[in-house]
Design a protein that fits this description.
1 helix, 2 domains, 7-stranded mixed β-sheet, alpha+beta, about 140 residues
């Protein structure tokens, strides 16, 4: 009958090392890809950096009203406990509402900008929004 051929111990060791190296390479490449994607997503083009909390339909149903927490310009926002769909969402230190009539920040997790204009507060709006500064980003 046929003879059973067994790989030598050195060949098995070589295969194990190669497999481990391939696994390490795959982990490295995945980490590098994730880091590259994060770097692109988190790039901040502006002096003022904000973290998006949530968004609602904008005033009179036009665009979006994006609620943000200002990260590096504390004088711009106010400390506020926010409600979302009737439930407490959280308390944030520097809340601002960015009026976004064109919906250009719809998918952002961060919004960075340099210039903005302060809007007059809407009358007859939601009382839970009272006192929150409203701005429109220009750049």
């Amino acid at each position: 009958m046929g003879r059973v051929i067994r790989p030598s111990e050195s060949l098995m060791g070589s295969m194990k090392t190669r497999t481990k190296n391939n696994q390490l390479l795959a982990c490295f490449l995945l980490s590098a890809a994730a880091l590259a994607l994060t770097a692109c997503a988190d790039a901040c083009n502006g002096n003022i950096e904000t973290l998006v909390l949530f968004a609602k339909p904008g005033p009179k149903g036009v665009g979006r009203a994006t609620y943000v927490d200002v990260l590096n310009k504390p004088g711009l926002g106010i400390k506020k406990t926010l409600l979302y769909e009737g439930k407490e969402f959280g308390t944030f230190e520097h809340v601002v509402i960015i009026n976004d009539p064109e919906g250009r920040f719809a998918k952002n997790s961060k919004i960075c900008f340099t210039t903005y204009r302060t809007n007059a507060p809407e009358t007859g709006g939601d009382l839970t929004e009272e006192g929150i500064p409203e701005i429109t980003v220009e750049k």
